[in-house]
């Protein structure tokens, strides 16, 4: 469904993406993991045409796009078919929750307001915010804001939704409600690419895991294989270090129980 | 103060007030609205990095900000006729004051636009909006809110600056006071009264500003 071919990006002399290729099938939930600075967010931003790649090709639903140059007509068509959820929500401060979801439909898709609002209300209900439609972003919690942002990304019913660390800016207490919504979308079979640091989420919700470091994909596999049977030393180390603390903590708890 | 002066002040107050209402206020509103449009175009030209235009507007802001308004007024009203371009008093003042507001407020507007998180612009792009659609629907409305207090400052300043148009034969508040005083020689009282009229108009604007700010605050 979505294929990225040989994506390259440099910031100055710093190589951030080095010929990265990625294939995403319909219904896949791809979790991109990796240490900070590995290029995973840049990859997602390039795929969303928010950062211009130096080179690379992208195919969505059979149509090929150049990642370095794109006509505004192609870009408009492409953006209708993808949704993007940001780490910092980026809700429009001058629009209500409903206004945030419908703006793109009304202004870009030229949809009549009433029809757009009908879609917007349904989406906000789906993310559990039926009672918050008329609230401005500043009156919503971080978790609620991110759920509005998810509803907004779904407005055009896109083929793929990109999530850039959707829970990194949230209180630990609020990550659950956002991850639950993303899981619900996964269960409905929506195709998603999620850059995340939430290992549990990747383990339980993702169908595939991609591990990146230094601008390259080090390893990719099904989620189950990735966590249970990592192939590369670096991947093993990453999984081990990411889970050591919680494992150690639960072992401590187990010891205490036996004592 | 004797009874004669008191009667004179009461009689002249109507003249000064009407001069403010019929000349100074229209000049303020006309110059401010034109100036604000210029300010937004200048700010957006800089933010959108439109080549050539971006440099041109910089030169414009530089020249207007670095020359006195009264010199600009003299150039337009007394100078331009010598090369065959003639404007009346009101039109001259309107042109100069619009250009002045445009230059000063463009910096206010630019800063306000840049204060809206850039992520919202990116979100607009993802929603399929163009740069200009994003500006109109999302960025500028929020920038206006931020720019509101400094812009209010500018309009209050402009009410007082309209008195400069006295020098290009515009019969506004100060000129009206001057005319009456030159007949009665009560300069002290008439100029005090002119000051009072400006004070009243600017006070009303100050009240409007705080009411409008409270109303804007409720919509976010």
Element layout with pairings:
The complex is a heterodimer of chains A (259) and B (220).
Chain A: E1 2-11, E2 14-24, E3 29-33, H1 40-47, E4 55-60, E5 63-66, H2 72-80, E6 82-85, H3 97-108, H4 113-126, H5 142-153, E7 160-164, H6 172-187, E8 191-195, H7 199-205, E9 208-213, E10 216-222, H8 223-228, H9 233-258
Parallel strand pairs in A: 3-8, 3-9, 6-7, 7-8
Antiparallel strand pairs in A: 1-2, 1-4, 4-5, 9-10
Chain B: H1 3-47, H2 53-65, H3 69-79, H4 89-114, H5 118-126, H6 131-161, H7 173-184, H8 187-218
Helix pairs in contact in B: 1-4, 1-7, 1-8, 2-4, 3-4, 4-6, 5-6, 6-8, 7-8
CATH A-level architecture of chain B? Orthogonal Bundle
According to CATH, the homologous superfamily of the domain at 2-81 and 158-258 in chain A is P-loop containing nucleotide triphosphate hydrolases
Spans where pLDDT lies below 50 across 5 or more residues of chain A: none
Proportion of residues in extended strands of chain A: 15-25%
Number of distinct helices of chain B: 8
What do these coordinates show?
The complex is a heterodimer of chains A (259) and B (220). Chain A contains nine helices and ten strands. With 259 residues, chain A is α/β, with parallel strands linked by helices. In chain A, the strands form two sheets. In chain A, strands 6-7-8-3-9-10 form a six-stranded mixed β-sheet, with helices on both faces. Chain A has a four-stranded antiparallel β-sheet with strand order 2-1-4-5, with helices on one face. By secondary structure, chain B is an all-alpha fold. Chain B has one domain (3-218): MetI-like fold, CATH 1.10.3720. In chain B, helix 1 (3-47) packs across helix 4, helix 4 (89-114) packs across helix 6 (131-161) and helix 5 packs antiparallel against helix 6 (131-161). The A-B interface holds A 48-50, 72, 76, 79-80, 82-84, 86, 88, 90-95, 103-104, 107-109, 136, 138, 149, 152-153, 155-156 and B 116-117, 119-120, 122-130, 133, 137-138, 141-142, 145, 219-220.
């Amino acid at each position: 469904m979505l294929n990225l071919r040989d994506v390259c990006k440099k910031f100055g002399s710093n190589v951030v993406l080095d010929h990265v290729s990625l294939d995403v099938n319909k219904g896949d939930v791809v979790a991109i993991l990796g240490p900070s600075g590995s290029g995973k967010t840049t990859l997602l931003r390039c795929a969303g045409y928010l950062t211009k790649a130096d080179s690379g090709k992208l195919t969505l639903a059979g149509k090929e796009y150049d990642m370095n140059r794109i006509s505004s007509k192609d870009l408009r068509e492409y953006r209708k078919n993808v949704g993007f959820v940001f780490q910092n929500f980026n809700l429009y401060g001058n629009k209500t929750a409903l206004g945030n979801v419908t703006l793109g439909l009304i202004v870009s898709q030229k949809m009549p307001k009433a029809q757009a609002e009908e879609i917007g209300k349904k989406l906000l209900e789906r993310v559990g915010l039926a009672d918050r439609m008329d609230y401005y972003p500043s009156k919503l919690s971080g978790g609620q804001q991110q759920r509005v942002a998810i509803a907004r990304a779904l407005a055009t019913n896109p083929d793929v939704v990109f999530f850039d660390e959707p829970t990194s800016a949230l209180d630990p207490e609020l990550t659950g409600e956002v991850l639950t919504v993303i899981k619900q979308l996964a269960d409905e079979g929506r195709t998603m690419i999620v850059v995340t640091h939430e290992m549990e989420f990747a383990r339980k919700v993702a169908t595939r895991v991609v591990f990146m470091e230094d601008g390259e994909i080090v390893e990719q596999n099904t989620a189950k294989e990735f966590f249970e049977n990592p192939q590369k030393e670096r991947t093993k180390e990453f999984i081990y270090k990411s889970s050591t603390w919680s494992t150690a903590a639960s072992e401590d708890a187990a010891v205490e129980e036996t004592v | 103060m004797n009874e004669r002066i008191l009667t004179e002040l009461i009689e002249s107050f109507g003249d000064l007030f009407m001069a403010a209402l019929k000349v100074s206020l229209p000049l303020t509103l006309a110059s401010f609205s034109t100036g604000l449009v210029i300010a937004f175009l200048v700010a957006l030209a800089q933010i959108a990095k439109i080549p050539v235009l971006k440099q041109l507007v910089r030169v414009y802001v530089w020249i207007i900000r670095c020359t006195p308004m009264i010199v600009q007024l003299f150039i337009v009203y007394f100078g331009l006729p010598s090369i065959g371009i003639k404007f009346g008093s009101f039109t001259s003042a309107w042109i100069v004051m619009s250009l002045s507001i445009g230059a000063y407020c463009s910096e206010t507007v630019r800063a306000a636009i840049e204060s809206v998180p850039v992520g919202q612009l990116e979100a607009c792009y993802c929603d399929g909006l163009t740069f200009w659609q994003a500006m109109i629907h999302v960025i500028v409305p929020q920038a206006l809110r931020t720019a509101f207090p400094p812009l209010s400052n500018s309009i209050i300043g402009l009410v007082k600056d309209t008195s400069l148009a006295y020098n290009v034969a515009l019969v506004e508040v100060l000129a009206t006071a001057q005319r009456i005083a030159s007949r009665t020689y009560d300069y002290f009282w008439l100029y005090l009264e002119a000051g009072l009229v400006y004070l009243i108009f600017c006070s009303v604007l100050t009240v409007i500003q705080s009411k409008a700010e409270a109303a804007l605050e409720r919509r976010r």
